[in-house]
Amino acid sequence: MIANMFRGTGVALVTPFKKDKSVDFPALEKLVDHVIQHGVNYLVVLGTTGEPPTLSQEEKRNILACVIAKNNKRVPLVCGIGGNNTQAVIAQLSSYPVEHVDAILSVSPYYSKPTQAGIIAHFKELDKHTPRPIILYNVPGRTGSNMLAITTIQIAKECKNMIAVKEASGNMVQCMELVQHKPDNFLVLSGDDNLALAQIACGFDGVISVAANCFTQKFCDLIQASLRNDFITARQLQYQLLDGIDLLFAEGNPSGAKFVLSEMGICANEFRLPIVPVSSNTELAIKAYLQAF
After folding, report:
1. Is 137 assigned a catalytic role?
2. Among this protein's residues, is 96 annotated catalytic?
3. Does the pTM exceed 0.85?
């Protein structure tokens, strides 16, 4: 089953920028090599961590093309294509080079706060038109509406192209309900780096991670240990990484991740507004953590 290629650790890639705020494609290529060499199972481009609201459609297509070329089919590739305008999302599905990706990550419609029936209707419409399998993305902290477990399960059962969900509700009861009632071949993936160990213990199949940009090897080791039920090793890694993960999100995503990557010499600590760099206090805390790490 194609869904099985998304077990383990997927990394939600940042989009590097130069000082003039243009996309830094050489840095993006460097990041792709870094995460693959240190153990990620697949790449996710143009997810939330990639700052897609600030990118033009042409830039998005160029970023996707860059990652496709640099990856060169070394690991599976997922592209983020979602929105709160169903017809616009369908149009994007046909205008991106998705024939070169393995799946689409599509967020539950945001801002509009659709009902559960509206969310189901949205994904059923995408199911009719998508050329690639879709990973649903539930992130109520960003969308303003929660895709309930019963909703996700109905979509999974009724839509042949929906193969997984990235679940970032942070609600562990909802997470367990998903695992308990999902179809056999439907994956449940964590969208919360600090909860991934606990969620895998409950039956999740892996994670789409921000931390895997920065703490790649140890985070991938944590996920693999969890998946093989080696929770002694997993707990040791969890408590090495927990403070670092918290710091990545202390002032929003991807501000913390890009600061770490700049300290690693992979990309500049540059953003497009309204995202701004972390404060000097958080910089100092991250530097202290990295020195100990």
Report:
1. yes
2. no
3. yes
